Amino acid sequence: MTTPHPAITDLTTHLLTPQTKRIPLPVAAIRVLLSTIRRSRAETMMGLQAELREASDVMVDFAKRGGPVETTNDDGIKVTRYLLANRSHTALTSGTHLFLKYVTRASLETPDFTLCKSQVLERGTRFAEFSLAARDRIASTASNFIREGSTILTHGRSSVVEALLLRAATVEKKRFKVIVLEGRPDAGGAKSAKTYDAAGIPTVLILDSAMGYIAERTRIDMVLVGAEGVAENGGVVNKVGTFALGIVAKELGVPFYVAAESYKFTRMFPLNNADLPEVKSEEEDGAGLRLIKFLDTLSWSGDGGGKSSEAQDGSSNNSGSGGGLEKYLVDLPKSISVENPPCDFTPAKYITLLFTDLGVLTPSAVSDELIRLYQ
Amino acid sequence: MTSDTAAPSNLEDPSNVRRWLQTNHPKQFALLDNFEIELRLGRFSSTRDASKPGAHQGSASSRYQYGRDRRLITTRTVELVRAIIGPTRWKTAAQLLTLLRGLGNELHAAGGYREPAIGNVLRRIMYAVRDEADHVVPSQSSGVDDMEKIDELTEHVSSKLRVSTGKELSLASMLWAHPQHVTKHSRQPSGDYNDRLRSDSMGSESGIDCWDANGSNIYPPHFYSRRDDLRQSVMEAIQEMMSELEDLHKNINEQATQHIHAGEIILTYALSKTVELFLKAAAAKKRKFQVIVCEGAPHFGGHQMAKSLAEAGIDTTVIHDAATFAIMARVNKVLLPAHAVLANGGLIAPSGSNMVALAAKQNSVPVVTVAGMFKLCPMYPHEGQNTLNDLISPSSILDYSLMGDPVLSEVELVNPVHDYIPPQLIDLHVTNIGGFQPSYIYRLLAEYYHSDDWEAFE
Description:
The complex is a heterodimer. Chain A is α/β, with parallel strands linked by helices.
């Protein structure tokens, strides 16, 4: 195997290091590009830009493949981990595009190459500081929307949504209830639920498929989700299920809010889910992206030991090495194809408002902001 | 906020404003007091404009009379602000902004919350102050460090590229890593959570903390330097605002014939001066159309409205509110009055209007609102139907004499004043500066108010 592109090495280090793991993808991408500049031996602006474009393309391609990394597991066997399997590369693209635009602008501003390069680096480090400041700004402008005694339905694991809800609960001392969708397949919602619970927010965790039921029955007051990327038409790309949630909210007349930092605004104009850049969801190499496991969790009673329901479980005949879970896997024949989209696109008509660090925006304001930048 | 009790004469905290005026400017203080009393008593509809033709008499008894001339209240507010900030001794833009915010809080507490327009004009004046203060950055700032130089250079270049990278937040200003993107939101209650975030994000950054160096500086540094020309330019801005208010109806009514066509049937709800004048303006231009007026129970402003329209020779029909749906099928256009236009393009209108808007949607009848720009409120309907709403005495629903009835006295009566109408039910807002779709309102907000002034008065 050839040595990976240094940008990929940087990105994987970012994604694997516990301290930097939860840095938003666009910011991580910008950091990688900054170190690309530091490494660069280009002598001209054109050369530098070409290197940056290459690094950007390589990263996007890496994300499209789900972010495969070779690691060794506990038993010392080489396995492939997919770091970005449940992410959309749009998040990455928005970061790199923004940065490339910035470099172009900087080169117009400062024709001298070395001066420009050092200035880009100096200012670039500020970029990296954005994410927390932006998140904080969103939290303080949008927490007004969280009303005392309300019930909020949320989906996916978004650091912005978490910051917003935690602020409302801990700083502003509002009492409200959060209902979190589980967030298959990475249980992002369940992880978020722990955060809310630790902050003392009454939290209910439900299956993704219960969204319609719970939204109608508990009379939720609002839906609040994060975003991987925000399209020019005001629609958002987010964890799969957001689209369905948008439809549910619209049908029930519940406001649907999206919290996202403005660096997630992307110059793309999808009209529906078919327009999303293709995600290789399947059959790259059998095990590869068929990451999703279909598990009969109801029969599995937790401690891995076989229980009475085991006998009914005709399909799981691969009770193998003893981890316990395997025998509850539904053994699927090859003829059933599995599709596992990590993200979906929710068109602007389902979105009431976007909470961004540029303020609370209507979906139509997104294109305005993008045009002002990329005109 | 630390209120300095030792020196009541300083203008550093909005909550000091009342005391500051009292000690230093008793005359202006008396003006403010008078205004507040009138505001509390809801007297504005019957004071100065009683002599004006077209003023609605006999309605002054009710505090919530639709068609009460909001423009008058707005004008009086601007006059008051002019009278207060004109002669008083503030020195810097920051002090003036503090004074204005303090005034806003005062008026809000005195019942201004019922009239969002009061807060709106104050915010507009604050925007004018910021604008003027930013206009010429004082030259005495000799010790500019490199970072600032770069900022200036950036601004220079990007103005060439016609990108606004000013002090407003935008993607472009973020691209240039302007300090406002990295520094914290200026006004937040301090708490552990924030402090932690603050220390995290500020990190070891240098050169960016000029904005928020000691926490108390909520305005950019050059707002704290003395500006003698500021008074003149702010007074000019206020004068402009006054003339805009004077021409308000003229500018709205110029558009009347664009929206009201010959032979159309227009439905309107209850009483509104703006709508009334709008319809009359169309009639004055020889348009023949029919108006259906919903009576607007329980205040029945529609009756007055119908009378006034009929006097102007307009073919007018009054229906009871419950007949709205039945009549909607034959209506060509719905014209709604506004109490306030919200940041998302939604509308606060007389209670019952939401029903009219829904009936219009069901029948695909366009809904047009008529409102002066001073009704544009930089706030979102956080509270749904409770937004900017008020529950008032049920005397208009039920006669008090009936309350002696032991059964009736157990009955609860709810009498909300307003309705919130979501933006998707509205097709067009007609204002004194033109017609706008609800989805465009956010841009008008950016033109009229500074985002740091959005914060509600309290």
